[in-house]
Amino acid sequence: MRKALIVWGGWLGHQPEEVAAIFRGQLEAEGFEVEVSDKLEAFADVEKLKSLDLIIPLWTMGKIEQGLVNNISAAVQSGVGLAGSHGGMCDAFRENVDWQFMTGSQWVAHPGNDGVRYTVNISNSSSSLTEGIEDFEVSTEQYYLHVDPAVEVLATTRFPVAPGPHSANKPVDMPVIYTKRWGLGRVYYTSLGHQANIMDIPVVRELTLRGFLWCAEGKAIASKAAASGEAVYTGMQDNQL
Length: 241
Known about the structure:
InterPro entries: Class_I_gatase-like (IPR029062), ThuA-like (IPR029010)
Structural class: alpha/beta
Order of helices and strands: EHEHEHEHHEEEEEEEHH
Distance between the termini: 40 Å
Shape: globular
Pfam families: ThuA
Strand content: 25-35%
Protein name: ThuA domain-containing protein
Largest sheet: 9 strands, mixed
Radius of gyration: 17 Å
Strand order of the largest sheet: 2-1-3-4-11-10-9-6-7
Organism: Paenibacillus soyae
Oligomer: single chain
Mean pLDDT: 94
Low-confidence stretches: none
């Protein structure tokens, strides 16, 4: 049976407990054994993490010990999937650049705050993750991210919509959904998911589930791959204040 770990906490305005319950229900319906924790210490046992198929962090802001980040990183490098949404993954630990390097982006702004009406544009891609999905509109926070150029962008949104100092620049397309690789592991992120009601939107729920399954499938593929012999990346040592 495939195994997943969901760890929620941090700023409660993102309703991490409620979103965790939605994610748990989705995964259990797909046959996963799901563990849910509200403690970062759930990341303390690196061998346990490596035995998983999928890790889902739901922890906005806050601080994390470097050793725990190293454990997650080692697990993902070994083939465990890492997937998350909104601030729960890419505004999780602002001081830890290793976390940002692994996850692929960092939130910096949401002009107009909550309730901005904008379009999510599905990118032209060979990825099966967006197959059959058309552009759609949402009314929520529109995330402005600093993004790793190595990611594969699956959906974007156009800035500016809400006015702000950024409006003086030319229009830009900002990633909303992307994938990347971390060692043998697969990483998936969607900036949608400010609160539980956004995750109840059918198209958002479908895209998120596809991301979870894609990440988890990578574990089986990674287990068949020959070890490269490359040393496991354990951080830059000067990554936290």
